[in-house]
Write a structure and sequence with these properties.
Blueprint: E1 16-17, E2 19-25, H1 30-40, E3 48-54, E4 59-65, H2 68-71, E5 85-91, E6 106-110, E7 113-123, H3 126-135, H4 146-155, H5 161-170, E8 174-181, E9 185-190, E10 199-203, E11 206-210, H6 213-219, E12 222-226, E13 232-236, E14 241-244, H7 257-262, E15 268-269, E16 272-273, H8 274-288, E17 295-298, H9 304-314, E18 322-324, H10 337-347, E19 348-350, H11 352-355, E20 359-364, H12 371-382, E21 387-392, E22 405-406, H13 414-417, H14 420-427, E23 431-434, H15 437-443, H16 459-462, H17 470-476
Parallel strand pairs: 17-20, 20-21, 21-23
Antiparallel strand pairs: 1-22, 2-5, 2-11, 3-4, 3-5, 6-7, 7-8, 8-9, 9-13, 10-11, 10-12, 13-14, 15-16, 18-19
Helix pairs in contact: 1-6, 3-4, 4-5, 8-9, 8-15
Length: about 475
């Protein structure tokens, strides 16, 4: 997150995860394995990446802007990252938060030795904490909220490092999954609500941590379990593993949008196949919002599983009516409107021979600002589609996320400004419907959403934020009135 202004508007038209993390301890080629794991997590962050390794004596780091394959482009690089322990990070930052100084893992020399941290999530009171730390003399080297954690550890008065680490996290609000390295161990943990994901596996004697199970698959590790919400796992260099639960028991609220869009479909989240959940969302969508049509067409690639489910439930044939070029980066990477709109045309092309004269159902994962949906609908009309009906595999996104997902300010979200009919008119669709929030919960294995104690974090749909948002509250607090004598 960019601490200078954490709620800057994002120019993209997709909700976007800001990072993915990976770590391994006890492996011969730890840094090379970490790069491979990060490559499997590239979809979680495409702006920059980094790896920090430890050889038993010293820490080594390499960070750079670009994809993993660009920054770690040859085997010779891993000779500069020796040791049996390494952690890595891929990131996408908010506007203004890019640059080498913000690339993780961050590393610092503390009183008790070196310490590195890779962070997935967002600290919702980071500005408040930073203000206090700066007033006490702290000097920040980045604009990342993650650096706040380093300063809190450094200033804690507890004698043992693990106690200092836990003491620091007790002051933190929001969402975090962390992979940390010290001179003696690797520490992995999730916030008490488990908003951001983190899993653990093994490959031989090595222990592996990652944001998603797909990264374990790619490096050849066997999945063991998810890190529990509020759990702190430490693995020493000699292989000893210890689990701690310092925050007590809470009702978990993992991010439901991991199932809708963020995670790779070949990952497993909460014991469920992400791919199968997305198909189930399509089934629910077809039950709730049927329409007479000739073809079901996904907006590639994220709309494909839900479109398969919709087609199977409705009996309407599934076809690839939009062909995607895989040699164009994600639309949201482009910061300017003109560049983004040009990307839509370069990235997607209508299969005219298939859609001409047909009534089509377009399936997409979400609508954020609506600009991309508008252009996709127009593309179908230009290709001769007789009718274009849009169906969306998530409820209307009415609220911004403050837990590690870069979203526009609320007034830029289409669903916050218009009802469904108004949105349909805006994107020029013949009809528009979203899966209900209960339908989404059914797809992920729940009977319905428990309004008094939701099973997931769904604040982007419901506005029900599971933690305090201190920085936002302080930003929006009315100014003290001036007293005139």
């Amino acid at each position: 997150m960019n601490l200078t202004n954490p709620y800057l508007d994002a120019d993209g038209d997709k909700l976007r995860e800001e990072c993915g993390i990976f770590g391994v301890i006890g492996a011969k080629d730890a840094a090379a394995m970490t790069a491979l794991g990060l490559h499997a997590l590239q979809h979680r962050g495409q702006e920059a990446c980094g790896i920090v390794s430890f050889d038993g004596k010293d820490f080594f780091a390499r960070r750079g802007l670009g994809h993993v394959a660009q920054v770690f482009s040859s085997n010779d690089i891993f000779d500069e990252l020796p040791g049996p322990m390494a952690s890595g990070h891929v990131r996408y930052s908010t506007t203004g938060g890019s640059g080498l100084r913000n690339i993780q893992p961050l590393h610092a020399d503390l009183a008790r030795g070196g310490f590195s941290v890779a962070h997935n999530g967002n600290i919702s009171n980071a500005l408040h904490l930073k203000h206090d730390l700066v007033n006490k003399g702290a000097i920040f080297q980045s604009t990342s909220d993650t650096e706040v954690i380093l300063h809190l550890i450094a200033t804690s008065r507890f004698p043992k490092l693990l106690d200092r680490f836990v003491d620091a996290l007790r002051l933190v609000e929001g969402a975090y999954s962390l992979i940390c390295q010290t001179t003696k161990r690797m520490i992995a943990c999730r916030d008490p609500l488990g908003i951001r994901p983190l899993v653990m596996g093994r490959i031989g004697e090595a222990v592996v941590f990652a944001s998603e199970t797909v990264a374990l698959d790619v490096v050849g590790a066997t999945f063991e379990r998810e890190i529990e919400p509020g759990e702190v796992v430490e693995v020493r260099l000699d292989g000893r593993l210890t689990s701690h639960h310092p925050f007590g028991k809470t009702n978990p609220r993992p991010c439901v949008f991991e199932h809708v869009y963020f995670s790779r479909p070949d990952s497993v989240m909460g014991g469920q196949s992400v791919y199968e959940v997305r198909k189930a969302i399509g089934v629910e969508l077809a039950k709730e919002s049927p329409v007479e049509a000739d073809l079901v067409i996904p907006v590639p690639d994220s709309g494909v599983p839900a479109a398969i489910g919709y087609a199977q439930q409705s009996g309407i044939p599934f076809e690839l009516g939009i062909i995607r070029s895989h040699y164009v980066g994600r639309t949201f990477i482009q910061p300017e409107d003109g560049a983004r709109h040009a990307d839509v045309k370069r990235k997607h092309n209508a299969n005219r021979a298939l859609v001409e004269g047909k009534r089509i159902v377009l399936i997409d994962d979400s609508i954020v600002r609506g600009t991309t949906s508008m252009k996709i609908v127009q593309m179908m009309r230009d290709a001769g589609a007789a009718e274009v009906h849009m169906r969306v595999a998530s409820p209307p996104t009415e609220n911004s996320c403050f837990y590690g997902v870069d979203t526009p300010e609320r007034h830029k979200l289409l669903a916050a400004r218009m009802n469904v009919q108004g949105m349909a008119e805006f994107i020029h669709a013949d009809s528009l419907a979203f899966v209900s929030i209960d339908g989404l919960y059914r797809a992920v294995g729940e009977k319905e959403r428990n309004a008094s104690c939701p099973q997931f974090c769904d604040a982007c749909f419901s506005g029900d934020y599971p933690t305090r948002l201190t920085d936002m509250e302080e930003r929006e607090a009315p100014a003290e009135p001036l007293l005139v004598s």
